[in-house]
Protein: 3-oxoacyl-ACP reductase
Amino acid sequence: MDLGLAGRGALITGAARGIGKAEADALAAEGVAVAINDIDEAAALETVEAYRRAGITAIACIGDVSDPADAARVVDAAAAGLGRLDILVNNAGAGWRHMGKLTEEMAVEDWDKIIDTHLRSSFLCTKFAIPHMRRAGFGRIVNTSSINYTGGGRSGVVNYTAAKAGIAGFTRNVAKEVGPHGITVNAIAPGYVETALTERFSDARRRIITGQNPVGRYCRLDEIGALVAYLCSNQAAFINGTLVPLDGGRNDFWWDGN
Structure:
């Protein structure tokens, strides 16, 4: 299927590796010029160089998009460097080292870090991207939530759950604001994804997680990329304000044994 994305320009945050890179890969495969944002400059530049060797138009936009000044600079640099900004994929986030504590034990700094890197960054990049898209009369914004947004799952991730629930609500409201301008805003809600992080799980933990899933496995990175590319396409022009689960059917309470 031709998604009609050739010639578009996209900014993907947190895209030097993992889910963000998979999203960038899928868009690039459809002929989209990509701006790779990350705080890891070396990894971002390495990713961009690999794209360029493959004949893909790509630029690096280094910065912490949870910071207002950095977010504004990154969005404007992406628009200027690509010559346009049609697509924004909000994927930036922080690591598990800021999770794992019960609410009463959680450091305020860990709460702030997760809320800022996931939710605040989505707000900031969206805020600064909308004017570019409104002037063009076209835009696609895809936010990264999680099946954790319902509050299901193990304890010790209250900051992560709050951030992902916030992204789900944020998505719905912004979609109402910008739909009249030809801009759609949607979110994806992955379950466990096959990444470098989950590869480090013990065999016992993996058995519990996959055993709780009707499909019996983790989500693949290419499956996330394919969904994001579709949501950015012309064919998805009437999908707006929606959160799409990628959980193999496991969208109720789940537990990973910890």
User: Anything to note?
Assistant: The mean pLDDT is 89. Strands lie at 9-12, 33-38, 58-62, 87-90, 139-144, 183-190, 243-246. The first helix runs from residue 18 to 29. The CA atoms of residues 230 and 236 lie 6 Å apart.
